[in-house]
Amino acid sequence: MNEPIPPRPPTPPDDALPEARSGTVGLLVVLAAAFTVSQFYRTAPAVIGPELRSGLALSPAQLGLAAGAFFIAFSLMHVPIGVLLDRYGPRRVMAAMLAIASAGAALFSQAGGAAGLVAAQLLIGAGCSAMFVGGLVVVARRFPPARFGGLAALLTSVSGLGMVLSGTPFAVLADAVGWRAGFLIAAAVSLALAIVIFRAVPRRGERRPEQPAESFLRSVLDLGSIFRHGPVWGVIALAMVSYPSVIAVRGFWGGPYLADVHGADTIERGDILLVMSVATIVGAGLYALFERRTTLRMPFVYLAAGASALGFWLLALAPVSFPVQAALLFVLIGTFSFGSVLLLALARDMFPDRLTGRAITSVNFTSFLGAGLMQVIPGIVLGLWLPVDGHPPAEAYRVVFAGIGAVLLVAAAVFTLVLRRQIAEGWRRWAARRAGRTVAPEAASGVAPGVAPKGEARQTGRHTD
To answer: pTM of the prediction?
Structure first.
């Protein structure tokens, strides 16, 4: 972040603009649908968690491993996915990976024990790894940088429909035809969407004409320029906890908690998790609307982290005796889950366009690695208590939630420590604008300076931090 920001690349000729704008709404719908499927797969097991536990005779640790397998595979695939997206383009990569997720869902429906369930989750997680970041790469290449944060939040908000579908609708479906048939239906839908993606996402932009083809080895080695950039580690520290803390509840453990502590049945669990899903959609949508009206991001990063930590501490320490009280706290956590999108926007602003896919996937990799750990570790912790009526006691869940809240606050402190200079500079620029003082051209772009390898231009937006 010590380098001056290179000049902005020239604006495309006017005759190119109509083509760039055509089909934009349809394209965004397809991208949102791809992310919707990913959101469904990562959260559906929460509704049927107790049924998986009893039907397949799984321990809490095995349940946690099965839930975490999705996120572990998802995260480990981010290194090759980032390279593949930059080299071959989102159209081919997203379609192929969604077909793999479809195969995993079919395997999930036939699982007979922990091993089969974990294998299925690994396939689904690997297949879904390109859905969100692939959509972000398309957005980054087709829209001005200043719109990236808002459009990313918008995609997140719309794709929250996947979490809604994995709530009450999937609970009703599982009650009617069983969870196995439900996952077979999901597999068929995923395969159909893979075909739509291959036909709908444009070839244009897969590699710009002025960009020479990179060798695969060079593409991988370029990842080093991302991880050698010191400030990105502050983003990584918070990313490893921000989204994982939310998905710890909505991805899996919220369902068993509601069943074990509050006696909620499948439909009741689906209802409460659906309400939490709606809260995540509303929260991301409100930020997407507000994002274009503000020049500050950092306050919202802290707001999201602080509100989530509060929700977990209340779950751990407050007398939560009724399901409706737990639902309200789930809503609080879900409403402020947009912080993870802001962290990706910060990471995107640190690097040149050539590294967009790898920058986004590198940070998202750490986020989903944290999400995997947030599924596995609670299962291990819950297993330390003697079962009560065949399930962990309420005290065990309180310890888990208190630990998540504490980790959130520690991660926010690390984020502040690593990025303290950039945060201070962002506030200085904001204060200068408010006072009407002239701001240097590189500061006028509104984004804290990032890294641009020798001679490469990095487009900038308008945020001060």
So the answer is: 0.73
